Amino acid sequence: MALALLSPSSASAHRLPRPSSSPPLGRAASATSIVSSFFPLCSSPPSPGSCSLQRASSAGGAGAGESEASEATSLDADLLRRVSGASDAGEALDIVAESAGGTGGLDASDCNVIVAAALDRGNVELALSVFEAMRSGFARAGAWRWARPDVRTYALLVQRLAAALRVSDALRIIDYVSRAGISSAEEVPFGMIIRCPSCMVAVAVAQPQHGTQTVSCSKCRYQYELFSGDITSIESEEVSMDVSALDKALRFINVIKDGLPAAVHSIVIRTPSGTARTHRFATQTVELPAQEGERVTISLAAPSNVYREMGPLKISARSQGFRPGEPMSLTNHINRHVSRLLRAPSKKEGPFVFNPYLLVGALALLASGDAASAFIDPSLPRLITATAFASAAVGTTLNRVILPEIRKLPQKTVDIIAVRQQLLSQYDMLQTRLKDLKQLSEKEVWMLARMSQLENKILAVGEPSYRARRGRVKRVRESLESTLLAKIELMESYAKLCSMIEIEVEMDSDVIVAEAASSAQWRIQAEANDEAERLLSSDSSETFSPEHV
C-alpha cells in the first residue's frame, strides 16, 4: 500500500540513519496486476525515511537462499546481525534502542528486514516473537516500538514458514490475516451473524454476552426471538413415520410445506445469564445440528407477548404457519452452519386423514345434507357443497393472503433497520469469501511445504540428473508463492472491509446503548445528590427553627 515519504529532517528525529548501501536480504517479487491496484508501491526513488517493502522467500534448504534485490533500511549489517541473533522481540528492540538511543519507532520495512534476517539464520522463534510484538502494537518502556504488520509481513512469514516446513505456524499467520490483525487473545469478538429463518438474510449479531433478543426482518417484515447460549444436554431419537398417500399428495401440491422428519431432538440451552430453556424440534436428517457444549443461537417464531396494538386487536408479527415460540432454525457458532428445523411430531398425532376435526366436520356436513334433502329439498345438498367450497376458498384466502399481510410490520418501521441489515448482509458475504480464500490459502501452504520438502530431497540425493527436476520444482514453488501473495492481499482487503462494517454497526448500536446507560447513570446520580441536598437543608432548617431555639 502507498506509504508517505518522510523528509530527512523529520526522519532523523525518530528513525535510525540509513546507510548508503545495505546488504541484500531477500528476493523481491512483484504482486499480480489485479491485487497491485489495491496496494500500490512507492514509485519515488528511495530516500532517507522512505518506505518500500520486500518479500523474501526461501530457496528450500539451508544455504540455498538467493538475493536479487534489497530495500532501503535503517539497519546496517552489523546491527542486523546482532538483532537477528536475539532470543525474542524485547531483546531485539533493546539492541536497536541501545544502538540508536533516544526514542522512536521502526517502520514496516525495518521490521520485515528483521523478520527475514531471523528466518535466514534459522531463528524462527525470534521472527514469530517480532510478529506478535508488531500485532500487539505496544511500546517497551515508552521508547522504541514496533510498526504494525502489513501485507508483506504476512506474506513473508507464510512463505518462509511453509518453506521451513513450519506448516502449523504458517496456517496460524493466515488465520491472523483473516481477522484484520486482531489480537489472538481477543475475548470480545464482533459476534455471529444470525440469518432470518424465513428469507435467510442477515438480521442480527449474536454477541457472547447476549441471551434473548427480539429482532425484526426488513424483507419479510416478521419478528423473531433469538435465544443464544451453550448446549448443556441434548437427546436425539431417530423416527420413522408411515406417510399416507393423501399426505404425500398434499406435500406434492405444497399444501403441507413441512418436510418429513428423520430425527427428533430435545436440547437444553443455557444463556450467559443462567437462564435455561428446553427446545424440541425435528430435522430432515439424522445428523445432530450441534454438539453438547457448543454455543448456538436458535431462532424462534415471535412469542405471544410480542405484539402491536391495532385498535382493540393485538397482532403478533409471527411468520405464517408457526406457533408462538416454535423453533425455526439453529445457527452453530462453531462451524457457522445454519440448520432449518421442523415441527416435532406429537406421539399422539395420527395421520392427516384421521384428523378428528376433519372427520367431525365432514360427518356433520354429510348428516345435515342428508337430513335436509329428506325433509326440505332434494337439491339442497348441492347448495351445501357449493357453500362448503366457497367457505373453504374464503378461509384459505383469509389465512394465506389477508392475515399474513395484516401480521406484517409496517414498512416505515422496518425501513429504519434496513440499512443495518444491508451492512450485515455484506459482512456475511465478505466472511464467506474470507473463509473460501482461507481454505484455498491453506491448501497452497501445504503444497508449498511439499515442494520445499521435495527440493530438500533432491538436494540430499545430489545426482546431476535431478538438476532439471529441481528447476521444475523451483518454478512451481515460485508460482505458488506468487499466487499465495495475491490471496493474502485479497484476504487482508476483505478483513479491512469487515472491520469497517463492524465499526459502523457498533457505532450505531453499542455506542448508543453505552451513551444512554452512561447518561442514565449520571441522571440517577444527580437526582440522588439533589435528594441528599434537600434532606440536609430540611434538617438544618428544623434544627435552627425558633421553636427549637
UniProtKB/TrEMBL annotation:
It comes from the Eukaryota. Residues 1-28, 50-73 are annotated as: Disordered. PANTHER family: PENTATRICOPEPTIDE REPEAT (PPR) SUPERFAMILY PROTEIN (PTHR37381:SF1). Gene3D superfamilies: Tetratricopeptide repeat domain (1.25.40.10). It comes from Oryza punctata (Red rice). This is Uncharacterized protein. The lineage of its organism: Eukaryota, Viridiplantae, Streptophyta, Embryophyta, Tracheophyta. Transmembrane segments: none annotated. InterPro entries: TPR-like_helical_dom_sf (IPR011990). Residues 1-14, 50-72 have a biased composition (Low complexity).
